[in-house]
Protein: CRAL-TRIO domain-containing protein
Organism: Hibiscus sabdariffa
Amino acid sequence: MENSMAIKKQSFEIEKTKIGLMRILVEKQDPSSKEADDSTLRRFLRSRDLDVEKASNMFLKYLNWKRTFVPNGSISPTEIRHELEQNKMFLQGSDKKGRPMAVVLASRHFQHEGGVEEFKRFVVYLFDKIFTRMPPGQEKFIVIGDLKGWGYANSDIRAYLAALSLVQDYYPERLEKLFIVHAPYIFMTAWKMVCPLIDQKTRNKIIFVDKKSVKSTLLEEIEESQLPEILGGKLPLVPIQNS
């Protein structure tokens, strides 16, 4: 026990030192990074195995992207009209550790005239909504992707890759787990195309749940009172724009 505590304390001190070094590097190259708190820098550091140079480059890239992609600081519902009209993303409840939970009904996703750029704005809109629900001391969230009824008409490889790229490149150490439930056999064809393009850390967070044990598997992480009704729980789905 004492040895474990000592190791944790040592790890904390190492991270603290590296956060200080990273802050010096990024503030020198981009003064706006002064607004970033230690928790944000820590997430980027951890995603790069505490390599200060790699984490700094990643964070600076994020700042440049955010200025360009979200110039107003947030995404307006008017910028993602087609996505919201599909009524496929919901946000309510939390897991046993207090992590906010999002539910996506994949069979409601179709390509539209807004294209991948609108879909990416939609993902950022989702993240911002989730972060406003984060309890103190919590930084991660859970996603349940329900693929019941998914067919080739819903397949959108570019959108899947865009979402995963955002998670990996600009929101590191935010996703705790992505549970994929009711995945039809034909989905695996699309998955085989996407999987090799996902980094190992992100891939480890994606869990395909056996169709015979969906509720029991989810109940290991989520109380029944917090689980959506469509998955055997007690919470009604709340569209993300209403959450």
